[in-house]
Amino acid sequence: MHKVYLKQAWQMLKEDKVIGIITISGTALAITMIMVVILTQEIKTKNITPEIYRERTMYIEYTREESREKSHININPVSGRLYKQYLSQLKTPELLSLQKRDQSRISIINQDEYLNVDILYTDSEFWKMYRFSFEEGKPFSKEDFHSGLPTAVICKSMAQKLFKGESPLGKEFLYKNKQHRICGVVKDISTLCDKAYSQIWIPYTSVFEKMEDGHFTVVILAGNKNDFNNIKKEVRESEIRNLREIDKNTVQFIGPYSRRELLVKEGNLTNEDPNLKKSAFRFYLILAILLLIPAVNLSGFSLFRIINRTSEIGIRKAFGANRKTILTQVLYENLLTSLTGGIIGLLLSYFTVTLIKDRLFTIENNSFGEVTIPISSFISPSIFFYVFLICLILNLLSSGIPAWRASRLHTADAIKS
Amino acid sequence: MSIIELKNVQKMYRTKEIETIALENVNLSIDKGEFLSIMGPSGCGKSTLLNIIGLLDIPNRGHLHINGQDTSQLNDKEAAKFRNKTVGFIFQSFHLIPSLNVLDNVQLPLLYRSGSGINKTARAKEVLEKVGLSHRMKHFPTQLSGGQSQRVAIARAIIGQPEIILADEPTGNLDSKMGMEIIELLFDLNREGSTIVMVTHDEHIAKQTKRIARFFDGRQVE
């Protein structure tokens, strides 16, 4: 039966090309708009190599220090001192790591040429939080980190710029008047991975005399998402427990927040938890509006087609179709149009996202790297599921009422029409 | 033995302003294997009667029994199933589905018959062979002549082997030669056991059938 429905739907598209093209294009454009919104959201929040644990990672980017008299408030990145006093002993997280982003100049020893680069100061735990693909060598070790050895991991394109095809392993570059020896080379990272991204990664112990001197973002890896609340609770308890009589200021960490929470906060530096439900409601409302407008337009075309097929529906009923089968057939035939439009729309959304990626994904600190969208972000089961779901909803919205009307037609009148 | 029995059937159409009585107190009994012609002037209720017998319309009053079953109790789904199994329709304007080819048009009733175990394509080819159109299976209705279209419509009506065939002026859109060929086909079907109820304006054709029921202003007059 479904084969015949499909054959007929295809035949009708062929017979009425103009209506077919308008319907498919309308659907494709609607799907494009919606998929651009969804893809952007997915790329910002879902796991992308090397940030493969995004969904169970939390971040503390700032602290809020308030004088006991409440006369002044300071908001700063987390200092090494506060991390050590308040956070380093947290029990619930699986891993804790510190990182600090910088842009600076490096050069090769005995060469006058300088290169501007993105640098990330971090620790040895960092390499366990992400899955980098090493082309050569390995990350700096725990021992290297604790000894403050000036060592570095660099990305492939930087290695190419610095050493023009020679193996960079064991070679050195000059940064802040210190010779840093290269211990590993990784594949280039897209700036979309805004936490893991850099061109050079060095242990912060090789830059700061004491850890307390630096200001960092704290990255917390939870065992699973369910631990998020416990981690937050533990941080709050730590704030109270570790506050000493001699401290002039009370300390509150802004966070820890999940990636989704950080996106919702959009740079808001208060320590109130973001309202994820409200944000999700707003997101789905935008999707609903984006769906509803084309659905209303497309329903006009569906109705036009149904009116043209009134007699056929009467005939089908005369030969044994009941209301349910008519309803199913109309929805099924429209689904073919919706899915064709959906596939075109999905391809168009890939193209659009790639075209306007720099506008969709703001690059932190105007990095020197590129926004490259991994193919896995486009071709994932969740994306295909979304497209199918949206086609289904669009189909129901646009042809549901015409199909229902068709199924209720009086058989004898319909045949005569 | 009656296969179709109408008892005191009345059909009325209402609009805001007027009431039109299409059928008034019709009592009609049609035997199994009979070939009945229904005649009368335009607007006398012939097609309404055919629609009621075919469960395409519901009487306002009275009862229709088919094979002894009171059809007034059937819901939409049951009525559709009943039509599918028991009745085959042939219309004056053929009413083939333009976006389906001949083979798919003929198979239509079998699409709505679940679990029949029938090989639909083979059966469709068989009935197309019977009406002499097996060479036109892949053609679309717009590529057929009037006579050929009506043959396809007959093939569609008989593919499900219904006991009753309802034909509403089957020769009305055909020239006399084509018309006679179609009537011959209907006689063949009747000889094979089908009960046929045919609406016609053609006295000559009607006289060849076993019985004529004449209607005037919604009433059976003969």
Please specify the SSE layout and strand pairing.
The complex is a heterodimer of chains A (417) and B (222).
Chain A: H1 2-15, H2 17-45, E1 57-60, E2 62-67, E3 73-79, H3 80-87, E4 95-107, E5 114-122, H4 126-129, E6 134-137, H5 142-147, E7 151-155, H6 156-163, E8 172-175, E9 178-186, E10 200-203, E11 215-221, H7 228-241, E12 249-254, E13 257-258, H8 259-265, H9 276-308, H10 310-318, H11 323-355, H12 357-360, H13 375-378, H14 381-407, H15 411-416
Chain B: E1 2-14, E2 19-31, E3 35-39, H1 46-53, E4 61-66, E5 69-70, H2 76-86, E6 87-90, H3 102-111, H4 120-130, H5 146-158, E7 164-168, H6 176-191, E8 195-199, H7 203-208, E9 211-216, E10 219-220
Parallel strand pairs in B: 3-8, 3-9, 6-7, 7-8
Antiparallel strand pairs in B: 1-2, 1-4, 4-5, 9-10
Helix pairs in contact in B: 3-4, 3-5, 4-5, 5-6
Q: Please report the distance between the alpha carbons of the first and last residues of chain A.
A: 25 Å
The chain-level mean pLDDT of chain A equals 85
Q: How does the major sheet of chain A shape up?
A: 13 strands, mixed
H/E series of chain B: EEEHEEHEHHHEHEHEE
Kindly name the structural category of chain A.
Answer: alpha+beta
Number of helices of chain A: 15
> What is the radius of gyration of chain A?
29 Å
Helix content of chain A: 40-55%
Strand share of the residues of chain A? 15-25%
Radius of gyration of chain B from CA coordinates:
17 Å
Strand order of the largest sheet of chain B: 6-7-8-3-9-10
Please estimate the helix content of chain B. Answer: 25-40%
Q: Report the count of strand segments of chain B.
A: 10
Total individual domains of chain A: 2
Largest inter-chain contact set: A-B, 25 and 28 residues
Write down the overall geometry of chain A: elongated
**Which term fits the overall shape of chain B?**
globular
